[in-house]
């Protein structure tokens, strides 16, 4: 179920006897819709001559996601979306942005959008001058112009916060090698229950936003590098590239990044023979999918679940 709030409104009879693939890992049993897009509010009762008793009684009594039974899967990010990531062989950039979030920060939204998290973070960013004091970037395109992929590849930590429900901020972070900072209480992130997610991410409570830059600034360098190293071991499970069209686009991105490497070496007046040798080595290494992608990971998990369905 790809709805903003996933399987929250799935009929209870179906939910209890099915495996749900969803982008929204909300786990509380008694829940109400939190969307700020009112037509999508699934807890609005609706009575119709063919359904005189409404529909709320048909969807109550289950969470939006049950760990072990259901699966929170990545949203699709096309390869060009993360083309400047060092994980796809773009020359690495200095990660000089401490914390990053660019997108809808609720300027023209109802107060319950994003549970109010984006709005509060944006207000703190402005009021406490997080940009000047910590080089934190939080805002929309008007506040933070520039190339999105370049920004993510230049950030140490990236915020993962909800929107009207799920938001693909985790995929943005992981695919750029940026450590996810997850702020959504009671909501499981993509692959959080399948991978050692806590070893390559940070969770922050929704009521613990003040002082966030100060907390991240004192993370020891060795801890940060260890999380980055662990992220590099699993990032490919967040990318869909096994389909031929996506694989072709990924190869175009890889080849373009190899050309960027070569151009940089030539601009630095490197020995032509050395440039050619390094370029040839990069071409051999710049291959994907060399590992299982997101789709393979879904199939592997479903295969592992077969004994429990019998």
UniProtKB/TrEMBL annotation:
It holds the Pfam family Exostosin_GT47. The keyword Ribonucleoprotein does not apply. One of its GO terms (molecular function) is glycosyltransferase activity. Residues 65-212 form the Exostosin GT47 domain. Keywords: Golgi apparatus. It is a single-pass type II membrane protein. It comes from the Eukaryota. Signal peptide: none annotated. One of its GO terms (cellular component) is Golgi membrane. It is found in: Golgi apparatus membrane. The keyword Aminoacyl-tRNA synthetase does not apply. Belongs to the glycosyltransferase 47 family. This is Exostosin GT47 domain-containing protein. The lineage of its organism: Eukaryota, Viridiplantae, Chlorophyta, core chlorophytes, Chlorophyceae.
């Amino acid at each position: 179920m790809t709805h903003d709030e996933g399987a929250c409104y799935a009929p209870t009879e179906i939910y209890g006897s099915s495996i749900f693939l969803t982008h929204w890992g909300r786990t509380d049993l008694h829940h109400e819709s939190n969307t700020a897009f009112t037509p999508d509010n699934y807890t609005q009762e609706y009575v119709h001559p063919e359904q005189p008793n409404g529909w709320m009684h048909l969807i109550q009594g289950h969470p939006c996601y049950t760990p072990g039974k259901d699966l929170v899967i990545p949203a699709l990010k096309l390869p060009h979306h993360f083309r400047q990531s060092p994980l796809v062989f773009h020359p690495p950039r200095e990660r000089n942005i401490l914390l990053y979030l660019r997108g809808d920060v609720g300027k023209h939204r109802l107060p319950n959008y994003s549970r109010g998290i984006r709005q509060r973070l944006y207000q703190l960013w402005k009021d406490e001058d997080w940009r000047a004091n910590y080089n934190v970037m939080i805002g929309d395109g008007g506040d933070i112009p520039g190339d999105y992929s370049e920004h993510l590849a230049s950030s140490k930590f990236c915020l993962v916060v909800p929107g009207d429900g799920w938001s693909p901020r985790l995929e943005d972070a992981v695919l750029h090698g940026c450590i996810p900072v997850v702020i959504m209480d009671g909501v499981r992130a993509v692959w959080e229950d399948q991978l050692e997610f806590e070893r390559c991410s940070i969770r922050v409570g929704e009521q613990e936003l003040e002082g966030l830059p100060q907390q991240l600034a004192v993370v020891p360098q060795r801890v940060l590098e260890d999380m980055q190293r662990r992220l590099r071991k699993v990032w490919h499970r967040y990318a869909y590239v096994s389909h031929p069209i996506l694989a072709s686009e990924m190869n175009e991105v890889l080849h373009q990044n190899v050309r960027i490497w070569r151009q940089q070496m030539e601009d630095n007046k490197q020995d032509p023979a050395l440039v050619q040798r390094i370029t040839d080595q990069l071409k051999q290494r710049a291959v994907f999918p060399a590992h299982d992608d997101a789709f393979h990971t879904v199939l592997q998990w479903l295969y592992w679940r077969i004994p429990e369905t019998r």
